[in-house]
Inverse folding.
């Protein structure tokens, strides 16, 4: 039975046998190390995404330390409200911060705690429900994720790409005038508009054709 450590675009943490291309955490321990089961969904506002390998470090998943979470790709992680890690993904984190500063016309780069505080307010309501918003499909950037009925789709090259735990399915032409429920937090959508390029799952090569 797979561990409950896979993050969906809607922020839910589920069990899945599919492998993702990024890991991350939500600021600390979310699990009981004895049973290796989830007991909470976040430990702090610091929701980050990391590479799978860094400086030959090795960890027991859901051991005594923080809870390792896994993502199909960065587009998925951004939709859930995670940002790049400043240690293992420093180059990406600096690009993300620069796009944040540009998108909000700030006079100085934001600090990590400042970004975490703002993203936290855009991720979940007090009761834990995912915060979504309505956007016109044709105005959303590549890398934004939306939900239509029970389907989660990513936007790329004027297409909707159906999301699954193991990759993207073949694209569907985008209805530019369709109002959709957007999963990607508004601030991250603006960062994507400002030019930040997220890491896509390799399945994109076939799904985008």
């Amino acid at each position: 039975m797979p561990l409950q450590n896979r993050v969906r675009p809607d922020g839910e943490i589920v069990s899945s046998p599919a492998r993702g291309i990024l890991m991350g955490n939500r600021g600390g321990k979310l699990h009981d190390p004895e049973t290796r089961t989830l007991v909470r969904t976040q430990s702090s506002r610091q929701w980050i995404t990391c590479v799978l390998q860094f400086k030959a470090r090795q960890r027991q998943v859901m051991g005594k330390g923080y809870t390792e979470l896994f993502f199909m790709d960065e587009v998925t992680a951004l939709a859930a409200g995670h940002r790049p890690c400043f240690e293992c993904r420093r180059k990406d984190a600096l690009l993300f911060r620069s796009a944040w500063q540009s998108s909000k016309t700030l006079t100085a780069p934001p600090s990590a705690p400042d970004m975490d505080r703002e993203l936290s307010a855009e991720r979940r309501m007090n009761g834990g429900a995912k915060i979504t918003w309505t956007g016109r499909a044709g105005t959303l950037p590549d890398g934004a994720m939306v939900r239509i009925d029970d389907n989660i789709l990513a936007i790329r090259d004027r297409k909707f790409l159906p999301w699954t735990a193991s990759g993207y399915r073949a694209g569907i032409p985008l209805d530019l005038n369709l109002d959709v429920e957007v999963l990607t937090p508004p601030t991250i959508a603006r960062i994507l508009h400002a030019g930040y390029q997220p890491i896509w799952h390799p399945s994109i090569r076939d799904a985008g054709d």
Q: What stands out?
A: Residues 163 and 191 are 21 Å apart (CA to CA).
